[in-house]
Design goal:
- The protein contains 6 helices and 9 strands; from the N terminus they run βαβαβββαβαβαββα.
- With 203 residues, the chain is α/β, with parallel strands linked by helices.
- Strand 1, helix 1 and strand 2 form a beta-alpha-beta unit.
- The longest helix has 23 residues.
Length: 203
């Protein structure tokens, strides 16, 4: 199977054949964006200083090294827990036109609806691999809302085959984490029943 690479600006048609569980990579531009930036856009109604139409964000607070002449180097960029942004994400997708959201762990009904209605994906980058992720970043091209501090600044990076990214929510309304919960709970119930048969003498 050919390696699937999404390139920004991403179009809805690029995502139509992708499903939960598929692995993709990103080439182009990726902006770090987490709690406070979501709040500023949705709760405070402030215009985002980055054009994300057809773009990609990662829920992450990277470690950045300042270089000379107002330039920066990304040291590592591990994803943070996406669920913290759940209450904002449907509206965020609608307002920005973002097509790819990268993070850690699952997200809920709002994000599922946003991905389905506005044709976007949520994908997870393997946790604990922040240094590996940094090797996919060619350079930092812009930094906005630096008043928020290093973790919350919107760092826009030029990336080359950033990944692997496992699709957890697709444009068809499927959610890999929710589907797996059902499967795992079925297996758990069967395992508990089997164990109880062998230890029923314990009261």
């Amino acid at each position: 199977m050919a390696k699937k690479i999404l390139t920004t600006p991403i179009k809805a048609a690029d995502l139509a054949d992708l499903n939960v569980g598929d692995i993709v990579y990103l080439t182009g531009y990726l902006t770090t964006c987490r709690d406070i930036a979501h709040r500023r856009l949705i709760e405070e109604g402030r215009k985002l200083p980055v054009d994300l139409d057809g773009g990609a964000i990662i829920h992450a607070g990277p470690i950045i090294r300042a270089l000379s002449d107002d330039k920066y180097e990304l040291v590592n960029v591990g994803p943070t827990t996406s669920m913290r942004m759940e209450k904002f994400e449907e509206e965020f997708i609608k307002e920005t036109g973002v097509k790819l959201i990268v993070g850690k762990g699952g997200m809920g009904e709002g994000t599922m609806k946003g991905c389905r209605d506005y044709k976007a994906l949520h994908a997870v980058f393997p946790a604990g691999c922040a240094v590996v992720a940094a090797t996919c970043v060619e350079k930092i091209v812009d930094a906005n809302w630096k008043d928020l501090g290093m973790p919350e600044t919107l760092w826009t990076c030029k990336v080359n085959e950033f990944g692997p990214l496992i699709i957890s929510i697709d444009t068809h309304g499927r959610n890999l984490f929710e589907e797996n919960k059902v499967k795992f709970n079925e297996k758990k119930e069967a395992a508990i029943a089997e164990i109880c048969k062998h230890v029923s003498f314990i009261k």
